[in-house]
């Protein structure tokens, strides 16, 4: 057979194989989902999400203008605190603190809706934001496209059905803030997501005609967001006041998965109706919690301080240290979850320097230790504990970040500590220690194979080890502070595990 004939045959075979693969691909993605959770829950969460491990939450809106609430509360709830004269969070409150602050600062007759004109975003540079997110080591971001006050960060018709302009294109900034960030982020390897609040505290339809609110406001507005920006992730919230049947979220999710422009790629969370968190939807969510683990992808969200929106009332001492944030990330990842860490830009579009510093320092650590974080899965024994009481003491509404310090480097008398966190990738086990071990690292119940090698990520030489009494005993190099590959936590790679 001639060379030309062979090439022709091979080309035909290649096209046939490609056709079969394409048919298989489109057949797999052509599944139609019904408008019920039994069907919708069968849709798998895209693999990139479980591999990502670290995301950045961004709360930004008119509440970023006053940017104030008592310590231990959410400043993005400013409108609700103001009008209800009620507060909840960490602390003892009279309830009218925000009202009194507002009255003193802006006067009796300054309405919350007037903050839209002062939400100027004149220092907002989405390209700089995107670069910061990439440098932080985050693999996805979630921007508040609309919080519970109903203000949208994109030009949207439904946002104005109160009877006045209530979006970033027609007020204050006069810019499509969501669209600009989406465009900038999509130039990087970071995935783009949007937070979207189902309900709005003071929308007249929500208060007086919820059926109309769902049909004429919520559903068309949600679809507009999806089709305009084609996000990788949608983060629902504000669902807790009404059952999913009344929200008609199964119908909306069926549209999202069957008809929308992101039907084959979008990831969703579990906040789509009263009582369905950690039961239905995509991945499961927790908020200011610890110690949770699930049999499917999940995510813990929290702020660097206590507030999600920027709170000028918080001091440096209210922000978790880089060490705390990294130990929190490691703890969550060892249990199979992601950390969605929030930042709150100010009204002009500046990300506070302390927040930038935390993100960049986390990025530096991840450059060395990312192999032990990204793409890993939960090990059969996620954590090696010392002896003692493992109970987590919680006395506040929101669990502060210092919980992880008490469980690792600063325990109370009689309390157990997490000596080693484990993650797993293929035949490799990663052992991450909150403290740099002195001389030896003893890992209990681990048996190496004949091919096993041990490394300290960021350190060039292999480490020697022995298998003694059912434990792996690793000889740890004695390094000075400047010789250490990173600060805060250290990752030991144990390859070719049995």
Automatic annotation (TrEMBL):
Alpha-L-fucosidase C-terminal domain ranges (all copies): 418-494
Domain annotation Glycoside hydrolase family 29 N-terminal: ranges: 29-371
InterPro entries: FUC_metazoa-typ (IPR016286), Fucosidase_C (IPR031919), GH (IPR017853), Glyco_hydro_29 (IPR000933), Glyco_hydro_29_N (IPR057739), Glyco_hydro_b (IPR013780)
Molecular function via GO: alpha-L-fucosidase activity
First-level EC class: hydrolase
Keyword presence, Hydrolase: yes
SMART domains documented for this protein: Alpha_L_fucos (SM00812)
Keyword Hydrolase: yes
GO biological process: fucose metabolic process; glycoside catabolic process
Organism superkingdom: Bacteria
Site label May be important for catalysis, positions: 301
E.C. no: 3.2.1.51
GO CC terms in record: lysosome
Assigned keywords, A-Z: Glycosidase, Hydrolase, Signal
Role description: Alpha-L-fucosidase is responsible for hydrolyzing the alpha-1,6-linked fucose joined to the reducing-end N-acetylglucosamine of the carbohydrate moieties of glycoproteins.
Name of the protein: alpha-L-fucosidase
Organism: Flagellimonas pacifica
């Amino acid at each position: 057979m001639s060379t030309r004939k062979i090439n022709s045959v091979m080309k035909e075979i290649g096209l046939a194989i490609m056709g079969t693969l394409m048919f298989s691909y489109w057949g797999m993605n052509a599944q139609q989902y019904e408008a019920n959770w039994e069907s919708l829950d069968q849709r798998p969460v895209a693999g990139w999400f479980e591999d990502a491990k670290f995301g950045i939450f961004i709360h930004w809106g008119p509440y970023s203008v006053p940017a104030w609430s008592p310590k231990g509360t959410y400043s993005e709830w400013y409108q609700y605190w103001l009008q209800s004269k009620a507060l909840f969070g960490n602390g003892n409150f009279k309830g009218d603190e925000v009202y009194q602050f507002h009255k003193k600062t802006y006067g009796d007759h300054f309405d919350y809706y007037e903050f839209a004109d002062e939400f100027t975003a004149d220092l907002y540079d989405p390209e700089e934001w995107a670069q910061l997110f990439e440098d932080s080591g985050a693999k996805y971001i979630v921007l508040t496209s609309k919080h519970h006050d109903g203000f949208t960060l994109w030009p949207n018709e439904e946002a104005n059905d109160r009877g006045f302009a209530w979006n970033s294109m027609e007020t204050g900034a006069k810019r499509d803030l969501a669209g600009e960030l989406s465009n900038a982020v999509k130039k990087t390897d970071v995935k783009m997501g949007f937070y979207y609040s189902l309900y709005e505290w003071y929308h007249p339809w929500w208060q007086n005609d919820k059926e109309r609110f769902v049909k004429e406001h919520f559903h068309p507005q949600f679809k507009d967001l999806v089709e305009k920006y084609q996000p990788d992730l949608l983060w629902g919230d504000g669902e807790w006041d009404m059952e999913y049947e009344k929200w008609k979220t199964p119908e909306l999710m069926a549209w999202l998965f069957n008809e929308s422009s992101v039907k084959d790629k979008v990831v969703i969370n579990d906040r789509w109706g009263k009582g369905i968190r950690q039961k239905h939807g995509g991945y499961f969510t927790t908020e200011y919690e610890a110690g949770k683990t699930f049999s499917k992808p999940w995510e813990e969200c929290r702020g660097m301080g206590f507030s999600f929106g920027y709170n000028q009332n918080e001091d440096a001492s209210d922000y978790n240290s880089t060490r705390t944030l990294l130990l929190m990330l490691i703890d969550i990842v060892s249990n199979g979850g992601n950390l969605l860490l929030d930042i709150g830009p100010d009204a002009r579009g500046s990300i506070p320097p302390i927040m930038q510093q935390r993100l960049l320092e986390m990025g530096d650590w991840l450059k060395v230790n990312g192999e032990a974080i990204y793409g890993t899965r939960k090990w059969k024994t996620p954590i090696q504990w010392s002896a003692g009481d493992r109970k987590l003491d919680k006395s506040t509404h929101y669990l502060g970040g210092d919980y992880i310090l008490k469980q690792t480097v600063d325990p109370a008398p009689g309390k157990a500590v997490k000596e080693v966190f484990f993650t797993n990738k293929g035949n490799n086990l990663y052992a991450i220690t909150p403290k740099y071990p002195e001389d030896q690292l003893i890992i209990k119940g681990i048996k190496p194979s004949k091919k096993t090698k041990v490394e300290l990520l960021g350190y060039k030489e292999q480490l020697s080890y022995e298998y003694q009494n059912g434990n792996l005993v690793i000889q740890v190099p004695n390094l000075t502070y400047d010789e250490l590959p990173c600060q805060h936590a250290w990752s030991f790679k144990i390859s070719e595990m049995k």
